[in-house]
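new request in #modeling-help
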Amino acid sequence: QKEVEQDPGPLSVPEGAIVSLNCTYSNSAFQYFMWYRQYSRKGPELLMYTYSSGNKEDGRFTAQVDKSSKYISLFIRDSQPSDSATYLCAMSSLNSGGYQKVTFGTGTKLQVIP
Amino acid sequence: DAGITQSPRHKVTETGTPVTLRCHQTENHRYMYWYRQDPGHGLRLIHYSYGVKDTDKGEVSDGYSVSRSKTEDFLLTLESATSSQTSVYFCAISESAGETQYFGPGTRLLVL
């Protein structure tokens, strides 16, 4: 069983829809939770970064963390064709060497149709 | 891409040949990382560095070595490339161990 599970999609939605992307995890030691966006043939870029349970909002994006259920979500409001990309969740924990080990989900491919 | 460049961006090589990929940063960040990205596996850490000449293994380090002689440069070497090392390789940097990582544009490597 993978430490981080993410539905690969693809997920197709009409422009203007609310998008919900999700990840589940099994390692209760994860402390930091991130969402990255990756356009085709590009490197991942950081979208959201959060430490605690609850919601964090940034423009059209809201990240939600539920540590009790080991579940994180990314919501995109008023989705745009430019949001079409692969979204990676990522989580980190402190390892014995003092290094924050980051574990990535496999990514969900999103297509927003005009 | 947060002041990170990777070279080459694309490479085709033959099985058994050595290959070196370069990551260069202009951010003066202490930590540098090499990942590979494969369908169904996501991003997996190969090696990382926490300072000049200080490196450590990640989860998929077999067949790879790294070197960091300057803060700004982190080299990944495939000693004898195999077809299983065909992948997209990403370099990342972070200011400290607990900070978020920023990724370069990637190198697409095909081993025939």
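bot summary: The two ends of chain B are 29 Å apart (CA to CA).
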